[in-house]
Amino acid sequence: MLRRKLYRDLWHYKGQFFTIFLMVFIGMLAFSGIHGYMDGMDESAKEYYKKYNLQDLWITNTNVSDSDLNDLKSLDHVRDVNRALVLNAKLKRYKDVTLETNILEENTISKMYVVKGEKYASNKKGVWFDSYLAEYLNIHVGDTLKLDVSGQILKLKVKGLVNTPDHVYFVKDSTEIFPTHQNYGFIYMSADTFQDAMHVDVTYNKAYVDVDKKNNVSSVKKLDNRNQEKIQKLYQ
């Protein structure tokens, strides 16, 4: 009897039952789709960071010298260290466009993903430009750009349009929540290119550190007394 009543009630209220069933089905479908999409993005990000070797740690200082570099490389669990000079430059002929300018000694950590153009090499002259900002500004491989670096104008050719794992989320300042890719971006060039253009030696102010295993990041952060003595001058 109860079963017959159940079927009779379902048939009587079939419109409401179908509506509720449809709402639940659509909700589960949307949840599964969003969850699968986010899981896919997470896996893609992990693969991207691994392939292009996102740095595990970075150190900022007024001068990361050759001896500092050697001391860092000698630390326990440290596999590799890259130095860079990072400063801002103005892009001439474009209104209010600022570029984070990265002058590299080498690029084995946080390597560039080349969207268009040539693969980066330290012996190549030119700049590798933020691909998203280049699209907005209509800048192409082969264009010659004018950069205002501390009042000195540099003319450099665009060798490639790139993305990098350490610039996935990249904003101008704390007033911006999301990257706009309209008035702020990044470029890369080799130390040789910078020295030839500016006629000065490069003083590196940042070091990117790659550890041997991810679970040793905390071990490098919590340096023992011997290691602290080695890099203490980096923080003075």
Could you give a short description of this structure?
The protein is 36% helix and 28% strand.
How would you sum up this structure, described in words?
- The chain has 236 residues and is an alpha+beta fold.
- It folds into 2 domains: 50 residues; 175 residues, no CATH class.
- It contains 7 helices and 9 strands; from the N terminus they run ααβαββββαβββαβαα.
- It has a 6-stranded mixed beta barrel.
- A hairpin with a 2-residue loop joins β6 and β7.
- The radius of gyration is 26 Å and the shape is elongated.
- The C terminus is likely disordered.
State the end-to-end distance.
Answer: 85 Å
CA-based gyration radius: 26 Å
Helical stretch count?
7
Mean pLDDT: 84
**General form:** elongated
Total of domains? 2
The helix/strand order is HHEHEEEEHEEEHEHH
Portion of residues within helices: 25-40%
Low-confidence stretches: 223-236
Q: Sheet with the most strands?
A: 6 strands, mixed, barrel
Structural class: alpha+beta
What's the number of extended β-strand segments? 9
The strand order across the widest sheet is: 2-3-8-5-7-6
Q: DSSP strand (E) fraction?
A: 25-35%
